[in-house]
Amino acid sequence: MNNGRAEKTRSRLLDVEESDFSLIITLLLCAIFLVFISDILHADDSPKAYDLQQAIAVALENNRLRTISQQSLEIAEEQYQQARSAYWPNLSLNASFQRRDESVNFEYPAQRFDLMPGMLPPVNIPPQEIDILGRDTSLYSLEMTYPLYTGGKRSSLIEQARLGVDIATHEVRRTNLQVVQDVKRYFYAAHYTQQLRDLAEEITISFEVLRDITQAFFEGGSNSVNKLDLLQSQLAYSLAAATHAEVASKHESALAALAFAMGLGWQEKIHLKDSDYTLSLPSDALDTLVDQALQFNPQVQQLSLAVEAYEAKIDEAMSDRYPMIGLVASVDGFNNNLDGGLDTEANQDSWTLGIGMQLKLFNGGHTRHRVSAVRVGHSQKEEQRLLLSESIAAQVKHLFIQTHAAQRQIEITQQAVNTAQENRDLSSRAYQTGAVKTEKVIEANLMDALVRANHYRSKHDQALHLAEITYLLGKEVVE
């Protein structure tokens, strides 16, 4: 009997499972579909996290400044090839077809011949019009010119174009360094404001708890707090909340600037990965840093190349004092619809070959003044190079000093952070027992926030100074 009931129960369960199986599968598929659609809809809304190296890699790939500088390099390379074309002869093909309103002719004057004077009368030949060209004429010519000697102008122009390519190459490096520098500056600013935002949020929560505890003590009739304590706690919370809102907005602005430096769209949202930076420089590295900056800085190298370019400009200007000699050759063709006249076999096809020379004998002192102006420009570029080298050395020294000052501040404020945190914790516990007044707790929290904010600022300043040193060195770049 028990076995029969068990079989009936088992059959009912099977019927229920079979009837609900399709419904369960349908609901499960719908749930999976909804989750999938939700992921698709919200995938683009979730901000992507970047650390510093990832942000730099994205910027070097997307930033439009790199595209512009690369195009400038391509232009310089094409101009160099354009200058090198002077080593090749110039060939030009000219062809034309002409139709005149009338044929070209000339009038042969009248003639009188005395064949046998006294015996025969003279023979008079009237004037005659003789056609020399028909109305339709076709012409073609293949001309070649090749400079044999230019007084150094050709080689100087090519040298200037080659130096232009080198200058553009260093400009690409300079742009890459600038992109990296911008990303670092905005990344450190975003990291610094993020730390301040979190600190402001923590202080706001602490003051909110302090306000609630003070209000509870005041409403409970505690003798340790009064109305002034309650107002002070409320005011401290309001100021902390306002500071938190302000710092949070600055953090969002820093993230937006970082996204722009990375070449991302204005609507794309990003945030930073949890990262910290601990950087330092040896105390005796100043001489090495200055030497590296003067050797690798792209601006210094560009001015050095500009000095060389002015030397080539001097050669170009002085070339006007020498003759220019060139080879000239041509093959000409002529065809006319008149059978005769100038359309003869000798005139139909011809060639010429010659050597030409041009020498400027007098131009009012133009060449002399041009050479003088270029020489002054050469001296000016050399002075600019020396001034830039001294300026970069002074900047590296200044940043080196600031970096070590920031390192010292980090060490000092780190000790102060530990002391301020302990003071805050002790003040909070003492307040709950009525051992200290409200203003002491507020002061302890504010001092803790101030010390930690100074600690964060010192770390930010040190990282920023090191990034600026790297930019001046011209060493850190992904080609």
Question: What would you say this structure looks like, in words?
Answer:
This protein is α+β, with helices and mostly antiparallel strands. It has a domain at 52-90 and 151-323 and 366-473: Up-down Bundle (Outer membrane efflux proteins (OEP)), CATH 1.20.1600. 66% of the residues lie in helices and 15% in strands. The protein has 10 helices and 10 strands. The chain has helices at residues 2-43, 52-62, 64-84, 153-219, 227-261, 286-296, 298-318, 345-348, 366-432, 438-473, and strands spanning 48-50, 90-99, 104-108, 111-113, 123-125, 128-133, 136-149, 270-272, 324-336, 349-358. The chain has a 4-stranded antiparallel β-sheet with strand order 2-7-9-10. A two-stranded parallel sheet has the order 1-8. Residues 16-21, 33-37 and 39-43 have low confidence and may be disordered.
